[in-house]
Amino acid sequence: MKHFLIPTLAIAALLTVGACKSSQNTASPSRPASATTTNSRIIDNLVGDWTIVDINGTPVSAASDGEVPYLGFSRNASDPSLLDFYAYNGCNFINGAIAIDKGAMKRVGENTSTMRMCADAPYEMAIATALETMKTFRIERVNDSSFLYIVNGAGQTVMTLRKHNLEFLDAAWRVTRLNGKEVPAKSNILFVVDLQEKTIHGNAGCNVLNGAIAVDMDRENGLQFTNLATTRMSCPDMALEQEFLQALGQVRSAVSVNGGKNCRLRNADNATIIELRKMSKDELRELD
Q1: Could you count the other beta carbons within 10 Å of the beta carbon of residue 183?
Q2: What pTM was estimated for this model as a whole?
Q3: What is the CATH number of domain 8-23+166-287?
Q4: What per-residue confidence (pLDDT) applies to 65?
Q5: Which residues of 101-139 are buried (b: 16+ CB within 10 A; e: fewer)?
């Protein structure tokens, strides 16, 4: 019986991305990077969601609603030199735009904010002030996390933020071990992770699998697979599929292994419950 496999569009997208990266890697390194290229790379590093871990030297904890204050950046749709930002200060949501020039950041226009009144919002004013006074920044990579330090005009670090580096997950994966047991290749348990869309698509062994990805900023390389749904075909070995789906719902973090060629998915106790191998282009073409 033929299994349902990864959707064709997902395979095509991965092959296209791989081809683009290969083309970029073969370009001559002798030409110096232009200021535009440098800014584009910096913007790429800034894009995403950052947890605020420190304000003016004071550690930041979750707000009364359980949400940790954060600052996120996305590319401006009309001007590639700008970044739109969105922030949560423990009470209100703030939106604005900044211009990036190498290590400098400058607010563009006025910020907008919701106007909720919160009884317990200890970081609200400090975060708002930091966003108003930010002048420069630097990014530091530590293990699988990036740290962003925002500095004001007086040279003081007013905000420290952390972002997970889960880019290695953006690929097609084959499950090789489940709860410590080897998974036969013929089981065809495989899936594609799309971090930008925060989705997972694939084959649970018999049925087509779809779901969402939620990044947990409070845990090192934290993430969860949520809203998991499958088709309802019946196959001879449904026990393995059910074990896989149950384990996938228990995942709380991911660890890159062997230079990103393999991955370990861990549960809340940091025990490895699913082991993955990145699929090659040839394997993907065979599925197409």
Answers
A1: 20
A2: 0.64
A3: 2.40.128.270
A4: 65
A5: eeeebebbeebebeeeeeeebbbbebbbebbebbbbbee
